[in-house]
Amino acid sequence: MKYKLYNAEDFLFDESFRQWVNGTSPQATAFWEQWLQENPDRADVVRQAKELAHTLENYYQDNATEARIDSELQRLMHQAAERRDETAEIPVIPLPAFSRWRWAIAASVLVILGLGIGLFIYSSDQIQEKSYAHLTQTAGDSLQEKINTSDQAMTVLLCDGSLVKLQPNSRLSYPKRFSATSRTVYLDGEGFFDVTKNPARPFLIYANQTVTKVLGTSFLVRAFEKEESVMVIVQTGRVSVYKQQDYERSTKNKGQQVQGIILTPNQQMTYNLADRQLMKALVEKPRAIAPDNVNREQFFEDTPVTKIFSQISKTYGIKIIFDEENLSACLVNLTFSNESMHEQLDVICQTIGATYEILDGQVVIHSKGCQ
Amino acid sequence: MERFTTAGYRNLPPDELWRRFKAGDERALGELARKHYPGLYNYGLRLTTDSELVWDTIQDLFLDLWDHRETVGNAVFVKTYLLKALRYKLLKCRSQHAPIHLDDSEENATEQTLSIEDQIIDQEIHTEQEQLLRRLMAGLSKRQQEVLYLRFYQNLDNSEIAQIMGMERQSVANLLHRTFKELRSHWSPDLLLSLLLLYFSKS
């Protein structure tokens, strides 16, 4: 052990030794007390070092108090906020006439935190009134606008601490201060939202005939004019999606159950403007919601496939439907390293002579069982 | 005055905090600053005895960092950068205004909270040791004092110290080695003596 050869000043510069002297780390204290017992011959050197460290600490002591540092930090944050607001003021640029714009909708939501979200789609006959230009012009608050004309994503900070990663050719309008009851922003284009949690003030994104309502989470909204469908993609957490007329009917007649669909991780919803149908499916490449389980070799030895299925299900947050009784006799030997979910399912199904299909955003296993 | 709270920012992973800082979130700046404030203030006191000047200079430092948040590079080097910038600013002040000296006495060091260990040790011996250290420090050059401080108190490695003080890494190593040789030649025998005294006084 290296410490056996240490002299006093070597100890002095050792982080854990100093933590022991300062009493700032219980682990360090435990370690050094133990070490001293095991190395009684070093006791003198350690004592010297400890003394010297103590004396130096005292020598370098200052008169800063927590309260003083806190008030300095308050002062700093105020000045920083003022400076930012001075420089960040962007004049609102007049928007092109909106009546000629054909607005098509595509919105996808990637929810990263496990919070309930309602997403309401408003498809209106009066499309003009739902356009970005109209909404931002008639919004009561004075809005600031960010337009990303560069070829890189731009990060926009909102006053509640929420962050928006605004993609090229996209624009976002938002009030300098949000109202007390809700946080409303307007988007044209694509933005990744990282919304701070505040259930008392829901966050509303008006993105071309759709309104996405969140209480605090991260998600992606896409609303470019070329796309003619709304898409909602959930990474983790839950999202409820409603057809606008269903949702509005339920808000009018309070208590009436609203018909909608709930999306769980790695599921996506497509809302086609033409046939007004909500379609649920799995995303093309499911992503692990428990990152600990990926990029790690996994070995299965004589493991029941049912156990592997439930692990995959947990990793990707996707429901896998199978006949428990039927598959309980299926034991497999497998090694996974960085296969995708579909690759893993392929391997398992080939091994036990089964097939699978994706139905309604879930995986269904078909098998005759194992002997 | 509205109060900023950074409570939710304490547990943010460093890269997330940095991302927010870069995006212009003043609470992220506050949280970054919170980590560095005590160390910077302490270092400032090595360079001037005017504590209010140190507080103000640290504010300037972070506001500079804030103004350049979009171009500053990596969070990893922030500590070194801040220490270096503080040193530069304070030394510039010193050359502009009259006498600010590296404090080689801690006359107004405030009352220290005594650990149990401290209390066990005979108060007289304790102060003797502090006096001894003070004498030893006074015998060191300002560079030696600063190198020792940055190595011990700020826990920096030689190349970081070299960067802050604008020296070669090897020069820092040499200076530190020399400083310790000097310190040890004075310290160890006296320390042993005081330890012996402690033994006798206890038994």
UniProtKB/TrEMBL annotation, chain A:
GO terms for molecular function: sigma factor antagonist activity. Keywords: Membrane, Transmembrane, Transmembrane helix. Residues 299-365 form the Protein FecR C-terminal domain. InterPro entries: FecR (IPR006860), FecR_C (IPR032508), Ferrdict_sens_TM (IPR012373). Residues 146-239 form the FecR protein domain. The keyword Protein biosynthesis does not apply. Pfam families: FecR (PF04773), FecR_C (PF16344). The chain crosses the membrane at residues 103-122. This is DUF4974 domain-containing protein. It comes from Spirosoma terrae. The lineage of its organism: Bacteria, Pseudomonadati, Bacteroidota, Cytophagia, Cytophagales.
From TrEMBL, chain B:
Keywords: Sigma factor, Transcription, Transcription regulation. GO terms for molecular function: DNA binding; sigma factor activity. The keyword Transcription applies. It comes from the Bacteria. Residues 131-183 form the RNA polymerase sigma factor 70 region 4 type domain. SUPFAM superfamilies: Sigma2 domain of RNA polymerase sigma factors (SSF88946), Sigma3 and sigma4 domains of RNA polymerase sigma factors (SSF88659). Gene3D superfamilies: 1.10.1740.10, Winged helix-like DNA-binding domain superfamily/Winged helix DNA-binding domain. InterPro entries: RNA_pol_sigma-70-like (IPR039425), RNA_pol_sigma-70_dom (IPR014284), RNA_pol_sigma70_r4_t2 (IPR013249), RNA_pol_sigma_r2 (IPR013325), RNA_pol_sigma_r3/r4-like (IPR013324), WH-like_DNA-bd_sf (IPR036388). GO terms for biological process: DNA-templated transcription initiation. The keyword Transcription regulation applies. Belongs to the sigma-70 factor family. ECF subfamily. This is Sigma-70 family RNA polymerase sigma factor. It comes from Spirosoma terrae.
